[in-house]
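Hey, quick one: can you model this chain's 3D structure?
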Amino acid sequence: MFQAGSISKPLTAMAALRLVEQRKLSLDVDVNKQLTSWKLPADPVAAGKPVTLRELLTHTAGITAHGFPGYASTELVPTLVQVLNGEKPANTPPIRSESAPGAGWKYSGGGYIIMQQTLIDLTKEPFPKLLHDTVLAPIGMTHSTYEQPLPKEFQDFAATPYRGDGKPVEGGAHTYPETLVSG
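Sure thing. Here's the predicted structure for all 183 residues.
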């Protein structure tokens, strides 16, 4: 097992599209209408256009935050809402609009974090359970999980993460409240 990072995004997209298929979620509705625990603040740069799930999925929502550094085992881990707001102990700035939705393509881990919170708010399920039930279990991925830190029963099977200089990451794999970017 290894921490998959951003290659987990397509599985999250599968979960979102499964909910669209079940008519529980819409691709073209303002995500703020589907979010309950957090709202994307209005910003003049968005030119009054709402952000939709379709735009979040395609990196065309004009949202900040390319990626996330995660949290070492010795650090406090923020909630997802704290990450969205850039509130301590989050180690990244708030996730906000940086251009009008639909104006262009720009990779946005932050947009996927908004989608993660939308899925959590909609289903009232913890994200790891939601991904297990909608994607991992149905396609037979029995040795995969979105749980963090990694559950004890998987730890003996997990690869040690290494830095570019060949040294192991101190404290092991980081924990990410932005679960979908780390899977």
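One thing worth noting: The chain has a mean pLDDT of 90.
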